[in-house]
Write a structure and sequence with these properties.
alpha/beta; 9 helices; 12 strands; elongated
Length: 369
């Protein structure tokens, strides 16, 4: 019943948005609104269909791929157009102006913000973060990769760019916290081959999108590319104990904020079995930033996650800040630090506004006494 109401609310919002955009466009161009209703309606239906095909992750043909990419971009532009119309209409309440100025402002906002969002999403940056860890004997430089989302919008060229960025930072270890591949399109050993060029050892845990495609296949591809896949396992590297958790929910009473529970295992039930070291600083890798209290209780010092994308684009960035206890950036609990990376790819709309595509450079330093 709850899902049905949510679905009805979603389509009601879509209907109101189409009505509003059609009315404003008809006013600007002095034409009948009916044609705008039809035009926007068809565009929205095709865009939502493309989003559905994209989310299904089964498309591999070139033509369906190109159509999916085009209409997903169109969907992003329509969202920005709606926000631009609303903003300019709000300004007109205080500063009246005619149709020509209105149209020019909306066009400039929509085109400018769209271009910025698409380019910004495809331009990852190195973000440097310093974390002090107890029991760490010397400074360790590490990199966190997450949410690369290889698929319809990101492929081998994007991954090569990330690999070059990681190597330029010269880390001792690389932590990869999931959502490597999101679609059967670009799911191949050739596409992920640049990972072989990484000079530091890589420790990988899967994410929900890896699971939706084929987690076992992706893990095997990662192993062939030279990565160490951790499946509820521990490892040691650069004076650190590394605990890698499969994608799971925090406890039996919880469900993921965005996706249904995928297994019976939970962070609460798994962490006590991981044998957290009492002498080495411990870094826990899990795709989603949930279960921090159980990870801290097990004795970990640093929890690395992704999954949220930091909300990816406004206004979802504001919603995510309230949806997730840990949404993006560095947080400190009583004895454990939590870092949530915004990731270096995108999901759904291929744009970023109000968040960055990042490769996280971690400066791990001994904690001052």
């Amino acid at each position: 019943m709850g899902f049905t109401l949510l679905l009805l609310f979603f389509f009601a919002v879509i209907g109101v948005a189409v009505w509003y955009m059609a009315r404003r466009s008809a006013w600007v161009f002095g034409t009948r609104a009916v044609w705008w209703y039809v035009g926007y309606g068809v565009a929205v239906v095709l865009s939502l269909t493309a989003m559905g095909v994209y989310a299904a992750k089964y498309t591999v043909g070139l033509v369906p791929h190109l159509l999916t990419v085009f209409f997903c971009h169109l969907c992003a532009v329509l969202v920005i157009l709606l926000i631009a119309l609303l903003l300019v209409d709000m300004v007109r309440l205080f500063v009246p102006f005619g149709r020509g100025v209105f149209a020019a402002c909306v066009l400039l906002l929509t085109s400018g913000v769209s271009a910025y969002g698409f380019i910004h999403a495809a331009s990852p940056k190195i973000k440097e973060v310093t974390v002090e860890l107890p029991r760490l004997e010397r400074e360790v430089t590490a990199v966190q990769l997450t949410d690369v989302h290889l698929g319809h919008f990101r492929g081998k060229r994007h991954l090569q760019k990330l690999v070059d960025m990681v190597n330029s930072a010269n880390p001792e270890v690389v932590f990869f916290t999931g959502d490597f591949i999101e679609s059967w399109y670009n799911c191949s050993e050739d596409v992920i081959a640049p990972m072989r060029q990484l000079k530091a050892p890589v420790y990988f845990v899967d994410g929900n999108h890896d699971t939706y495609v084929d987690s076992d296949l992706i893990k095997e591809m990662c192993r062939k590319a030279g990565m160490r896949v951790l499946e509820n396992e521990t490892a040691e590297c650069a004076g650190l104990q590394i605990v890698g958790l499969d994608y799971m929910v925090e406890d039996e009473n919880a469900r993921d904020h965005m996706h249904a529970a995928l297994s019976k295992a939970t962070i609460q039930s798994t962490m006590p079995k991981m044998g957290v070291s009492g002498t080495l600083p411990t870094v826990v890798l899990h795709h989603s930033p949930v279960g921090a209290k159980y990870i801290e209780a097990a004795g970990a010092d640093l929890f690395l996650a992704g999954h949220t994308h930091g909300g990816q684009f406004f206004p979802v960035t504001l919603i995510n800040d309230r949806l997730f206890e840990y949404n993006r950036g560095l947080y400190h609990r009583d004895r454990m630090a939590v870092y949530v990376s915004c990731g270096s790819g995108t999901f759904g709309l291929p744009l970023r506004i109000g968040s960055d595509s990042e490769v996280t450079l971690l400066h791990l330093k001994p904690k001052k006494k």
